[in-house]
Amino acid sequence: MQRRHFLTSSMALASGLVIPLGKNAWAATSNNATNRKLIVIMLRGAVDGLNVVTPYGDANYRQLRPTIGLAAPGQEDGSIDLDGYFALHPALHALQPLWEQKKLAFIHASGSPDSSRSHFDAQAYLESGTPGIKRTQDGWMNRLLAALPAESSPIRAISIGPTMPAILSGRALATNIGNSNASNNSPIDRPQVGDAFAQMYRNNEKFSKTYQDARSARKEIASAAMSPTMTQEMINANGGAPLPNGFPKDAAHLATLMRNDSRIQMAFIALGGWDTHANQGAGKGQLANRLAPLGQGLATLAEQLGPLFDDTTIVVMSEFGRTARENGNRGTDHGHGNVMWLLGGRVHGGKVHGDWQGLSSDKLNEGRDLPVTTDFRSVLAQVAERHLRLNDNQLTMVFPSGPGTSTLSLYV
């Protein structure tokens, strides 16, 4: 996205000046409310973008991934050809029709310019929209909500998950609702509440023992319900986000809400389980088991939004990618560049966008990772501008540190 006014406008806003939209600006913007929608899906834990959209046309790919590399299209458990060079993970076959309809696009080698390999920091930067700046108190979706002209409403932006995410935190009103597949949690599972009950029963030996036994049983049930491949590190990387198993149901629920109430303009869902340090698998296995419900949920969302899908952009993103070379545990470690996904009726679909430089060792970041050649903010800024019709000054409110520039054309 060539935005020659953008950085100048950012500095001007910081100094108290207001620069009007230039006559040569190439996107139509408006101060009027728009009925267009935005849905953001965040994959917490760093999904392996090189096995989501695999560069099977690069000979280095199979050398770097001798056991977890996807088979070429046409082979057993092979990937799904996209353009003769890139292919889609076979577990995402539900998305193939959207690709063929040119309503699905990918931006490869994209991500945060910050080099952090910490899940906590990288997720915070992805949600704040200010990489490298830890003092940001609000999320970019909340700032976007504040910048969009429309009547304020608590259901204008909704999050589906256990808690309100940082990406929607801020002065604009937003609402959080629980996942449809949420576990049968009780207030008593909260440490403060549980400890309060323990104190209340402490002087009654019979009630105290009964209560402690029941509390222990709930913990054991919760532990038994956890996926056997989930490590404590993966749980921490998830940041409280559920696995994608229930995502198709949540997607159908979200589509129903958005169809039935036109006031809902933005939505956010976080999904966990992507920190695949060991036993990642290739066409089948751990990663495939996560991707299958994700792909099915996205296909369900597109289908059940109906005509509303043409006025909707769905963004799928993750905090960073994973190492180009598989590790000794047949998994991948924390990396850098990744792949972003765009779905919608107006996206420039059927194309893998981005400045792809290949997987030769001299092109890898620090000799180990896919580099970031497209700042994630430049993708989001184009969504805000081309899809939601924000002007330059509104964009500086949403991304105050600037998104950088790119030549991508993500909308038709």
UniProtKB/TrEMBL annotation:
The keyword Signal applies. Pfam families: DUF1501. The keyword Signal applies. Transmembrane segments: none annotated. It comes from the Bacteria. Residues 1-27 form the signal peptide. Keywords: Signal. PANTHER family: BLL7424 PROTEIN, DUF1501 DOMAIN-CONTAINING PROTEIN. This is DUF1501 domain-containing protein. It comes from Oxalicibacterium faecigallinarum.
